[in-house]
Amino acid sequence: MFDIGFAELLIIGVVALLVLGPDKLPTAIRTLGLWVGKFRRTVSGIQAEISEELRLDEMRRNAAIEKERLDRELAEMQTPFKPEQQSTDAASAGATQAEPASSAGHSDAGGNDSHRNKADS
């Protein structure tokens, strides 16, 4: 973060000792240490929150992309079956209309008309 070497820290320590004196220097260092610790914890918490938000945003984007892909696959899978289903419905409708026409002649299992056999007897 800061490029402070040992020499700079030593100069800051000597100046602080001269300004504050030997009585107040330990209290000032302790207070400064508490502030630095609090600052680091705050920055660390903010970094964790930002990282979590970025992770959640990425997951949302990935989920949206995957949903679009699955929707396209579903549409592709349903598309070929729609024309076949319509032709199957039309064929079954035609078969149900043809059945009453064949039963109108009153044929028996042998294919002979039953009313004709009664007339012959």
UniProtKB/TrEMBL annotation:
<comment type="subunit">
    <text>The Tat system comprises two distinct complexes: a TatABC complex, containing multiple copies of TatA, TatB and TatC subunits, and a separate TatA complex, containing only TatA subunits. Substrates initially bind to the TatABC complex, which probably triggers association of the separate TatA complex to form the active translocon.</text>
</comment>
<dbReference type="Pfam" id="PF02416">
    <property type="entry name" value="TatA_B_E"/>
</dbReference>
<keyword id="KW-0812">Transmembrane</keyword>
<dbReference type="InterPro" id="IPR003369">
    <property type="entry name" value="TatA/B/E"/>
</dbReference>
<keyword id="KW-0811">Translocation</keyword>
<dbReference type="InterPro" id="IPR018448">
    <property type="entry name" value="TatB"/>
</dbReference>
<keyword id="KW-0653">Protein transport</keyword>
<feature type="transmembrane region" description="Helical">
    <location>
        <begin position="6"/>
        <end position="22"/>
    </location>
</feature>
<dbReference type="GO" id="GO:0008320">
    <property type="term" value="F:protein transmembrane transporter activity"/>
</dbReference>
<dbReference type="GO" id="GO:0043953">
    <property type="term" value="P:protein transport by the Tat complex"/>
</dbReference>
<keyword id="KW-0472">Membrane</keyword>
<keyword id="KW-1003">Cell membrane</keyword>
<keyword id="KW-1133">Transmembrane helix</keyword>
<comment type="similarity">
    <text>Belongs to the TatB family.</text>
</comment>
<dbReference type="GO" id="GO:0033281">
    <property type="term" value="C:TAT protein transport complex"/>
</dbReference>
<keyword id="KW-0813">Transport</keyword>
<protein>
    <recommendedName>
        <fullName>Sec-independent protein translocase protein TatB</fullName>
    </recommendedName>
</protein>
<feature type="region of interest" description="Disordered">
    <location>
        <begin position="69"/>
        <end position="121"/>
    </location>
</feature>
<comment type="function">
    <text>Part of the twin-arginine translocation (Tat) system that transports large folded proteins containing a characteristic twin-arginine motif in their signal peptide across membranes. Together with TatC, TatB is part of a receptor directly interacting with Tat signal peptides. TatB may form an oligomeric binding site that transiently accommodates folded Tat precursor proteins before their translocation.</text>
</comment>
